[in-house]
Structure formats: C-alpha cells, structure tokens
Amino acid sequence: MADNVVLAGATGNLGGRIARALSNRGANVVALTRSGTSDETKRKALESLGVKVRTVDMASVSELASACEGSACIVSALQGLRDVIVDTQTVLLEAALKAGVARFIPSDFSTDFRTLAPGENRNYDLRREFHQRLDVEMIASTSIFNGVFGEVLTQNVPYLNFEKKMVGYWEDPDWRLDFTTMDDTAAYTAAAALDPTTPVALGIASFSVTLRELAKFTDEVLKTPFHLVRLGSLEDLSRRNKSERTAHLEGENELYPQWQQTQYEHSMFSVHHESFDNDRYPDVKWTSLTDLLAQRSQASGA
Fold this sequence. Notes:
- The protein is an alpha/beta fold.
- It has 10 helices and 13 strands.
- Strand 2 (28-34), helix 2 and strand 3 (52-56) form a beta-alpha-beta unit.
- Helix 1 (13-24) crosses helix 6 (182-193), helix 3 (61-68) packs across helix 4 and helix 4 (82-99) runs parallel beside helix 5 (122-134).
- The longest helix has 18 residues, at 82-99.
- The radius of gyration is 20 Å and the shape is globular.
C-alpha cells in the first residue's frame, strides 16, 4: 500500500512529469482524468509508463473515493481558478478522507505563500483558502514549496530579458530568488509521495541567485553582459498590480492575466526560503543555472 499513489492532474505539464518520476521510483500510480475531457494521446503516454488511468467525475466524492481506495498518498497537480484549486481539490480531499488515504500533497508548487499578505497574489489566495479546509482535517498533508519554476528564466522575463539584455529587479538587487525546474520539482515530489514521514512543508530549489549575481552570470558565463536595472519598489509594484486588477476585471476569469503575472513578481521579491530540504532525498539531482540556460541555447540554436 505504501507504494500506491493517486495522481490528479497527470495530463498537465507538471503532472505528467510527476507521473514519470513516480513510475521511475516503482510506484503503483493511478492517474485521475476528468470525464469527457481526457486527451487520448496523453492517456496513452501515461499508460506507457505503467500508470493506470481512471476516468472519473471530479465532482463525485463517491467515484473519487472508489478510485483512491488502497492508496497511501494523493498528489494533486491540478491547475486552475477557484473551481479547481478550492472546489475540485475539496472534493478530492473529501474522497481521500472517505477512502482512508493517509496523506495528501496539494497543488501548491510555488513560493511559500504562508507569510504573504492576502490580496497580493490572487492564485496564492486560492491556495490559502483551500488550506483552511485541508489543515483542519484528519489527514497528513505536505506542501512542496519550490519557489519559481526555473523554466521562466528561458522565457524572456523582466528579470532576465534576452531582447533588452537586462536583468530587472524590484526593491533590492541582492534579494535572493529560489528557482526549481519542473523536472526537479517532479522528482522531489515523487520521492515525497513515497515517504510516509514528510512534514507539513518542504522547501526546495534547484538553485538560488540574487539579481546582482544573475547580471554577473550573464557577463562571465554567457559572455553577453546584461544591464542591472531597478524596476521600482515593491510598494510601486503592489500599487500597480491593484490598479491593473481593478481596471481589467475580465482577468478574474483567466488563470494568468497580466496582473497575475506581475503579482507573481511581487511574491518572488517578497519571500524566499530561509532553509532548504534538498538533501532529504540524496538521489534527486539538481539542475544548475548553467545547465538550464545551456538547454535554452540548444533549443534556440544559439
């Protein structure tokens, strides 16, 4: 039973990686897919890993509980707004309780939002709302806090802008940012799912770097010096985010409206790990900043 894991969100980008990592560790994985929306190609990809795919009504506690019976842990890699992060995960939690599942790993996978002020990040507020239910139930839970997905550094973001040759920062160039690649996050999550002794939170990072160090990296390693540019204060960013959110209410129905993306920037520059749990699973190999950007160069043909 200890090797039996239920995975929700397995057809997503992170979820698929977690499924592969669990399979690599010899876990018996049941992937839950939503009735009527399953992608046959993704289903076959999961089955090729040895994963059992169960199509269920994600609004049905009884169907989910039946799929979860005999499992030691449920991992949620679901992504969405309140209807998913709060509502669907609550149904999944109720199913776990009904099925007697001992452990639950919610779809947090983010900066540690527990110390962030409510209202500064809509998507983190939804996770905090779900935790109000999760944290009082008789089930052990563990949040994986991986900082920021490292892949964003390959996507021409303000804090590593390849077009403008700029490293932009808010407030403090010596603030340290924590980055974890999706593969590293998945590998660590798989190990945690099979570990019955995990605490309520685990903080990880493939690498941590200040913006001043990142600018130095572009000069010394990439051999293309980027300018270190102050974008403003955190107070400036907070005001702008609130103004943009008010002006663009249609974004409330979007997962990543522009103001949500800059809310993530505010969170990145507001909280980071004070300690790391990387060493808990010594077999997890961590991606370096050099390796990550080398992969970008290879992909772009640079």
